[in-house]
Amino acid sequence: GAAGKQAGFGFSFEELTRGIDAKHHVAPGYDADVLIRWGDPLFADSPDFDPYKQSAASQLQQFGYNCDYTAFFPLPQGSNSADHGLLWVNHEYTQAEMMFPGLAPEGQDRYPPEAVTKEIVEIEMAAHSGSLVEVKRGKDGKWAYVKGGKFNRRINALNTKMVFTGPAAGHVRMKTKEHPDGRSVIGMLNNCAGGVTPWGTVLSGEENIDGYFMGTVDQTHPEQRNYDRMTVPSPWYQWGRFQDRFHINKEPYGANHYGWIVEIDPYDPTSTPRKLTALGRFKHEGAGVTVNKDGRVVVYMGDDQRFEHVYRFVSKGKFNPADRKANMTLLDDGTLSVARFDADGTVTWLPLVQGQGPLTPANGFKDQGDVVIAARIAATLVGATRMDRPEDVEVNPKTGLVYVMLTNNDDRLPDLPHHVAASRPNAANPRAANSWGHIIEMHPPGGDHAASKFKWEILVKAGNPADPKTGASFNKATTENGWFSCPDNCAFDSMGRLWVGTDQGSKWQWTSGSSDGIWAMETQGPLRGTARLFFRTPVGAELTGPTFTPDDQTLFVSVQHPGSDAVDRVTKSGNRNGTFADPGTRWPDFKDNMPARPSVVVITKKGGGAIGA
Ligand code: FEO
Ligand code: CA
Ligand code: CA
Ligand code: CA
């Protein structure tokens, strides 16, 4: 339903009404069509999806699970086409309880670890990492993916070889029995958000990699301190039973192969993905890329965990529009820094350079490889601000201002003297028990993204403005549908308008029980801080990966884990007796024998035109 027009707003669509049900919804006057679903065949000879006859071999030929970040690469390469291109899609993680029929025994909330066979593990690994798929808009204005498209590719965690570049490549802490040279690895994990470089490659962030490792940390091992900060083993997966690299007692340095930004060339299906160690190892959300006015490439990155940091990488070399091959190595060498947000409104970028300040051999930093492998420890040592879960950081292409999504942090303690300083509120993270998140706007001086000091201010504190305990600060023009909680991914269209996607996790009370979705957000003028609801997901899903085509006429979004954030529904109904239980929605197929399927949705305006204009 529509909630009425709002005069004077930079987004002229009619607002959607908030709510929650089994379906997805978009503002009136728009179409939101399912483009590609988990299991859809990618190659000419790929088998059709059959959730009752899954195998690793078929999953390697099909679209993976839990789609997240999306990126659009025009075809032909170098054109500005908005009707034909390659869509990159991250596959963040798998959920055995949602994917496989009959895994949970009667009367149990969760499947037992022994229910997970080697074949299931290999299917899970095959369903991870990412897909590249050709997409095309037909004469009828409808998008479809091209089965058998010549660039179509499945990058996965089972058999895709990748290499390391930068200071940690070949480092002693990267050498394993499987990869004794410390320069290569199989697969990437938990790819959440990402970014696009000006030379037409995708950057994909490895986020919650700790969930993949089994074993116990040897408290005398030199890697122990880094495990404690970054990779405390909390196995969501059984992979370590079958693959030594996920068992930390067998491969103590195996975890150092994950937690990086990975660069992939979509236009070369034979290219080897490269893990860019110069950008640091942490729980990467995404990568906001811009070319600085002096030609250096700047990448902004969030580390999504409670009390972690916001980072920036500035390349040493300069972007050359005429030399794509040279640009491909720009992110191998440069300066990584981390942000300190002071109460006077200054951001100071603190360099993470071995030998500078506390980053000395005495503190465990013998070379720059040590710095990037233990980036979190280095960042805290130099005095970076501990934030409320930094997610996407994106640059407004029109104004050059930089926006940081801070999703929430319910562990931030009240401002009492007996709480350690790092866990108490600070100027940039002002709310204790921050369940709702906020957005910070950063101002590079004179548009210089490489400057050592920026200014910052809070654009909005999220949450329900009608509930005073949230302390939410939306513009008063925001309607009861327009407020949101838990900003996560964001995107700018080419007109410089901000779109915010939300991820409330399983905490439906934080949004008064309504679905995640995408909101348009005013950043300029008297309506700055006003948000308006445009699209919402089915129950239990999260909105991820918003991407506009170059003409702003198409918006791709991922609908991740439909049905599964409504935890009670999953645990009480489970996938038992060889069937898929109904987790509250069987989106998008709505067939009794089919599971809910994570899918990419494509949004267009009826009759054509820019989204939200
Ligand atoms: Fe995978 Fe930070 O969300
Ligand atoms: Ca995310
Ligand atoms: Ca999130
Ligand atoms: Ca989620």
From TrEMBL:
Signal peptide from the UniProt entry: none
Coiled coil: none
InterPro entries: PhoX, TAT_signal
Region called Disordered, residue ranges: 566-593
PROSITE patterns: TAT
UniProt name for this protein: dTDP-glucose 4,6-dehydratase
Native source organism of the sequence: Niveispirillum lacus
